[in-house]
Design a protein that fits this description.
Helix content: 40-55%
Shape: globular
Structural class: mainly alpha
Distance between the termini: 13 Å
Largest sheet: 2 strands, parallel
Strand content: 5-15%
Strand order of the largest sheet: 1-2
Number of strands: 2
């Protein structure tokens, strides 16, 4: 379920938008509960890790150059969550190609799509 949205240019590295994305969360985490954040190799930078820690997350970042390990018995890979969410947004034809010139108009469409996704999941 999407809980936060941020739009950037296509050529913007993921690590630069991490702080904006974490601040855009609609659902706030409880103050005393430890929150974990799983990130891929694109976030293996000290500033991205510091941004996550400042927002009281425990970052789990795959390091560059680190070999992919196999999941142990009982563990599952989490990459499918990202792919599934992209698939949900791709079902909205208006979002597949960005024709809107103003970023706030496109953000409104993405937020509307997120509301529809949540409504379908809850209802």
């Amino acid at each position: 379920m999407p809980i936060g949205l941020a739009i950037t240019a296509a050529n913007t590295p993921d690590k630069t938008a991490l702080a904006e994305l974490l601040d855009a969360r609609v659902i706030r985490s409880p103050a005393r509960t430890e929150q974990h954040l799983c990130l891929d190799k694109g976030y293996d930078y000290t500033d991205a890790e510091a941004a996550a820690r400042r927002r009281r997350f425990v970052p789990h970042i795959r390091r560059r150059g680190e070999e992919r390990r196999r999941c142990r018995r009982g563990e599952r890979a989490r990459r499918w969550v990202v792919e599934r969410t992209h698939s949900w947004f791709n079902r909205f034809r208006k979002l597949l190609i960005r024709w809107e010139k103003k970023p706030q108009n496109y953000l409104a469409l993405v937020q509307f799509a997120a509301v529809l996704i949540v409504w379908r999941l809850v209802g």
